[in-house]
Design goal:
The chain crosses the membrane at residues 139-160, 167-187, 193-212, 224-243, 249-271, 283-302, 344-367, 373-390. This is Maltose excess protein. Keywords: Membrane, Transmembrane, Transmembrane helix. The protein contains 15 helices and two strands. By secondary structure, it is mostly helical. It has helices spanning 26-32, 39-53, 72-109, 111-130, 142-162, 165-187, 193-214, 220-234, 237-245, 255-272, 278-309, 319-338, 342-365, 371-396, 403-410, and strands spanning 3-6, 65-68. The longest helix has 38 residues, at 72-109. It is globular. Helix content is 72%, strand content 2%. Strands 1-2 form a two-stranded antiparallel sheet. It has four domains: 3-68, no CATH class; 107-218, no CATH class; 235-302, no CATH class; 310-412, no CATH class.
């Protein structure tokens, strides 16, 4: 057993008994006693101390007290603890990297259901155009397609700024596919040519700027101007679309869009002049992304409102399309949760619940789909959410499944 030596302090609890005692010098004991302050007494005490300090009788020899070191068994247990801790840390880091790679692949795989969701409409429009049946394309609302297109473009800029490559591909595919539909509508004269021309300029310019931003080829000031542009262009669309959903129960007007437009312009100008607080500038930077997300979140609300007003139209909904929408958005939920992106998670989860599953509920209630199809979709979705929460908690070392949700909403 190893041992170490150190000089013990002169406090009685830590020192060994000295070779000599102070009992032979009662003057010292008397001087250390607790008595009221007295100047003559203090002087006498100092004289006594001075004489005794230099007295050869009080040269005390203190022994060095040995202190035992840690036993070999304790040292071995501590080393084993360190090894186990390092191993568990390495395993957790490996699990995180594996789940990070897997969630990125899930987000990339969402391209397939989203492409299958839009492809039938493109094929149908092409057939009608080739057959000269342009009137069939009038059933496709160009304003709704334009709103979705601008939403995809805004989210594309948001994810490029965050460097989420898989989400960037999903949004770019959405922009291209919706633009193809709008092009078909313009060819069928179902969309006014001036509106199509202006839309084309915005879309082409947006794709070029986003491409340059992704490869760090764009000036920061130009990108900042683009963000301000999509904020001013996107914000008025949200209240206007929400208002239009409830027409004719409320009067038809463009007032909500105008108010939002002037509010957005004012906010951008105040930010340019430095009149906004730092928190306000930060909020303005996320406004375009949140506006696009809320636009997509409102789409199922509008659809369910239409279902409520016209139940006979529910039979026109495609159960496969609703399922594809739920799968596509569901594949992006693990990635959004892992990177703690509240906006992304909210939009994807909302679309799964209200657009995909919600419309399946409507179809099931009106006997448009079988019970087996509905139950399989429901339990599959619940299982996917459960696996996502469990796996995320595991890679972060959380004991509760809901700790990840707490971090997502409130931060670390």
């Amino acid at each position: 057993m190893a041992s170490s030596l150190f000089v013990v302090n002169k406090a009685p609890l830590h020192s060994s008994r000295p070779c000599c005692s102070l009992n032979s010098h009662p003057q010292i004991l008397e001087s250390f006693s607790c008595r009221p302050p007295n100047l003559p007494r203090t002087i006498n005490n100092k004289l006594h101390l001075k004489k005794i300090i230099f007295s050869p009788q009080l040269v005390c020899c203190y022994r060095l007290k040995p202190v035992s070191a840690i036993s070999s068994e304790d040292a071995q247990s501590i080393n084993q603890y360190d090894i186990n801790y390092k191993k568990s840390k390495q395993v957790r880091a490996g699990n995180f990297e594996q789940w990070d790679s897997l969630t990125a692949k899930f987000a990339g795989a969402a391209n397939l259901p989203f492409l299958l969701l839009q492809l039938p409409q493109i094929v149908l429009n092409s057939r009608n155009l080739m057959a000269g049946n342009k009137s069939a394309l009038l059933a496709v609302p160009w304003l709704g397609m334009l709103t979705g297109l601008l939403g995809n473009l805004s989210l594309l800029s948001y994810f490029i700024k965050k460097r989420e490559t898989e989400a960037v591909v999903v949004q770019m595919l959405g922009v291209i596919s919706m633009y193809v539909v709008i092009l078909q509508l313009a060819m069928a004269e179902a969309m006014p040519l001036p509106h199509f021309t202006a839309t084309s300029i915005v879309i082409v310019s947006g794709l070029i700027l986003n491409f340059m931003k992704y490869f760090d080829l764009l000036n920061a000031e130009i990108w900042h101007f683009w963000e301000e542009f999509i904020t001013i262009g996107g914000l008025p669309a949200l209240p206007q679309v929400m208002w239009s959903t409830f027409v004719p129960f409320i009067p038809s007007t463009i007032l909500p869009g105008l108010i939002a437009f002037f509010t957005a312009v004012l906010a951008v100008l105040m930010a340019r002049m430095g009149k906004l607080l730092e928190k306000g500038v930060k909020t303005l930077g996320y406004l375009a992304g949140w506006t696009a997300t809320l636009l997509f979140m409102w789409m199922p609300v509008a659809q369910m409102w239409t279902n409520l007003l016209n139940p006979e139209n529910i039979k026109g909904l495609s159960a496969v399309s609703m399922l594809l929408a739920m799968i596509g958005n569901g594949l992006m939920i693990p990635r959004a949760l892992l990177v703690r992106d509240l906006m992304w998670f909210t939009g994807s989860f909302w679309a799964c619940v209200f657009y995909g599953w919600g419309n399946l509920v409507c179809l099931y209630c009106f006997n448009s789909i079988s019970q087996e199809f509905f139950l399989a979709s429901t339990f599959g979705f619940l299982a996917w959410i459960g696996i996502t929460l469990w796996r995320d908690a595991q890679v972060h070392g959380h004991s509760s499944l809901f700790t990840s949700m707490k971090e997502l909403v409130f931060g670390h």
